Request: fold
Amino acid sequence: MNISDALAGMPQILPMIAVIVGGLVTMLMAVARSHKDPEHGQLTAGPFVAVALVSLVFALFLLTQIEPQAKAVWGGTLAIDRLSLVGQGLIVVIAALAISMGAASITTQGIVRGEYFALSLFCVSGMMLMVAATELLTFFVGLEIMSLAVYVLVGFRRSDRRSQEAALKYFLSGAFASAFFLFGAAMVFGATGTTAYAGISTSAQKLLSGTAFPMQTLLLVGATLCVVGFAFKIAAVPFHMWAPDAYQGAPTMVTGFMAVTVKAAAFMAFLRFVLLALGDGSTRHVPWIVDVLSLLAIVTMTLGNLSAVLQRNVKRMLAYSSIAHAGYLLVGMVGALERGEPAVQGLVFYLFVYGLATLGAFGVLIALERKNGRHDEMLINRFAGVGFQHPALGVAFAVFMFALSGIPPTAGFTGKVLLFGPALDAGHIGLVIVAVLNSVVSVYYYLSIVVYMFMKNPPPRQSTEPRVFSPWLTGALVVTTFGVLIVGMMPQRWIDMFAKLV
Amino acid sequence: MQLNEWLPWLLLLPLAGSFFNGVLGARLPKGLVFFVACMPIIVGAGISATMAYTIFTAPEVDKAAIRIVYDFGTWISAGNLEVSGRIAVDQLSAIMICVITGIGSLIHLYSTEYMGDDPSVHRYFSYLNLFVFSMLLLVLGDNMVLMFVGWEGVGLCSYLLIGFWFSDDANASAGKKAFIVNRVGDFGVIIGTLTLFFALGTMDFATMPGKLQALGAAGGTVALIAALFLFLGATGKSAQIPLFIWLPDAMAGPTPVSALIHAATMVTAGIYMICRLSWLYTAAPAALAVVAIVGALTALFAATMGLMQTDIKKVLAYSTVSQLGFMFLGVGVGAFSAGFFHVFTHAFFKACLFLGSGAVIYALHHEQDIRKMGGLWKKLPITTWTFVVSTFAIMGFPGFSGFFSKDEIMWQAFQSGLDGGKLAAFPGLNYLLFALALAAATLTSFYMWRVTLLTFFSGKYRGDQHTFEHAKEMPLMSLALIVLGLGALLTGFLNVPHILGGHLMLAQLLSPVVGALPEAHGDHHALEIGLMAATLVCSLGSMVLAIRLFGIKQEPTQKQMTLLQTLPGRGFVKVLYNKWYVDEAYEKVIVKPIERTSYVFFYKLVDQFLIDKVMIGIFAVPAKYGGYLVRWIQNGSLQRYATVFAFGAAAIVVWVVLR
Reply:
């Protein structure tokens, strides 16, 4: 790669740069302002959110200005095809909503610090890199930028032992998974002589039609270990065990952020890997990949849902719910491998819908948090009667739960139809039946919260600590609630946004 | 701004009003609530009037094709199902939106006084605006699906408003009854719509007729099936035999609701639908005959039930059912514009009657029993005279609106069997239809004068003197009454028949949508005049009889009064008073068996045994223990997590390599 090549690729990384600059500015603001407000010892979140939103919106604007093209830039490491641009756009939008919601939470918890915003934005830049990467090492760099930021965010409530424990567990298992991934990447490199997806794809086709040993085996084992690395990030069973602890221990705004953006980024990078490195976009060279993904999908959905049924802590329940959703998305990925373009459209559309609904649900949890909230705040019986005390929040939460269970007229229904349809078309009937049965099971725990909210009397003694009103949170909740409903009722133009990604 | 760009606002304003009052109304001052509720409808009335004016004054060449269309884009696209979000105004819907928003505005204004003291008045107006939105969607929707959305929407609002005072159990169950009975009809609409979709491949009003024609001979069968099922829906929404039973109970709702929903607009949706699908019914003469017979029977049957009611609103309710029967008779003999003309005139005089009864009920502090009224003309002059005008209209007194519309229907019913008529294939049917209609018209005149006289005249007030002294009229309520009374007086002149020197203007205006009025061969002017005279003699006879019985200035004699008081107890009269025991029959034949089956089969067997015992044993218990196992693995120890991870990865790798 030479200078002129780099300059030619410059516009394509401007969106990422915009996000990073936003992160740097928030960091500097924190330094500058921390001396100015010694009286309360605390900053207000407003200016930080504003800067973060400006940089994200600007990044989104830049993304819309880039003309998609098939050829990768930056020496073949970054894609600027529609999958990359739309994927980055999706992450930026969801992250903007998540950061707006987080503003309320860090205020309630008394941990307004500039690093929160800086880390979130750096994390977003890493995700954008992951989604665009067409090469194993570039992907890995993006993955680590994202992961390191998330580890810190999980432990952001430093005074809380559980938050620390969650961060440590997540960090250690993350390091473990990264090692698996790198080992796999090394083997793939050994077998194919390249780390670029396009090169891997060509060599894989050759290797897999030739003799089995040793290079073919090396490639298969390496690719499998890479898949394991991805499976860890999307929290697929049995590589999910960090997720419940991390989700529960993390501050609520970080849990929401993680459950949505990290999953979306990992899934889109995973999608690109299996489609373009282990296949060539339309055909797949590695026949076992569908079986592995189907198996992962089945155990992930089933275990996620069965565990969620037993939970009494709503945050942990939503963690298992997000594991179950990783299973559903894997069903969509099986469809994408079999059917290509329309299935990819369904998968990314579902990521969007899942993002709105899950973020919304966490937003409601944030809105219900109290100052100096204790850890059992999120137990399900604390939700009794909430629907009458805060009707708007109750109704919004019910909408999100209906969306997550896939009940019309919410977007969750449309999303699941588009997600499972291609897999069904391709003949994976058993897989889709398991997925639908799992959706049925999930209705139980989703609606049980709604039942508590609207059909049980509030507990006699309640915390009198005030809740914090935040316009950012309110705005983000309005957007997500109406988003879930409008996308559900008039889905066509939203579905069209995700057309022709590959 | 193009005219069609106003069209979405017609829908969105009431929806926004409903949302605003529903969400925020409880915390706002009442004045603002009233303003937010009334403005969308009044503005909508202006928009509707402009559109109707544009359509009806279009140059002669455009007249057939003119439509004002707004497209929200594709709503649903799945496989070969394509549903557009298109709304359109044509001649038929132009008149409907004027009625809905025009009478709707008056009723909204009326309600600000009638419902003004109710603590949850914001909820009332939220529902009422939502109703207007749904009703407009019903008539504006350019395909079966949008129409059905509106159809269900008005049903929902009707349910909510009938049970508005839901803390009283009777009101709540009246709402439920209306909803459940309508579900039966809606089921028919769904089947009819799906029949059309599967046979024709489209649900757009514009393209369906051509597709049906292309089917050739098979089209007749399709049309018959679809038309009959859709008519089942119409009998539900428009309260015809066999599904009329909900409408009398619906009087439990606030009186302005009865006027708007259960007299002027929603209950006419069935007639609107048949007019909209006139090409379908024309293709299925047998279905038309069924519509006509059901309509005529309902007209008479409901009129007999109206004879002996003592609740002022119940009388009007049965009268509505009966008048709706007339409308179905009109469309059933293929005279779609005649039936629709009666929708139009009826909207005015029946809304006026209902609002008049509301004014009485308001003035007398919720007294609804006509046996305890009388002599109110001194206290409520405007109410009295508008009520009298409307009674003249409904009995068909020459010059009043009902005269023209009812007479058109009766003549069309008679001539349908003449040579070249729509029902010529069913010889003798026209005589039966005419006879039923004549009997119904005769009874109508009697029971309407009975209720008018007993309420406003018949000598002195028979109730509590203190209440009488304080009875008074309210300004906005009176305004609504006057406007509607003028409508009852004048709207008939829109459609004066040829023999009276008119040109059937409304029929001509509507002919691009519903086709021209059928004309039998030959010259029947003498016959038409003769039948008109006969009808008139019968109605006037009933009126005179009613005046003799109940009196204007003089009070009914003691004997007449005792008769009135004890009437419900005796013989045939008791049967009439109890509405032919239709409700009881439904209870015995349908409700009880369903209840028993549900209890034994669904509750005892399915719910308690299959689900609670068997299914829980097979699925839930193992799932629970499986969950415990998972929980044991997920014990919080990082070492165990890493072990599971490593073994999982190893298992997959081994599986991949060995296969």
In short: The interface with chain B takes residues 169, 172-173, 176-177, 180, 217, 220-221, 224-225, 227-228, 232, 237-239, 241-242, 244-245, 288, 292, 303, 306-307, 309-310, 441, 490, 492-493 of chain A (CB under 8 Å). The longest helix of chain A spans residues 3-34.
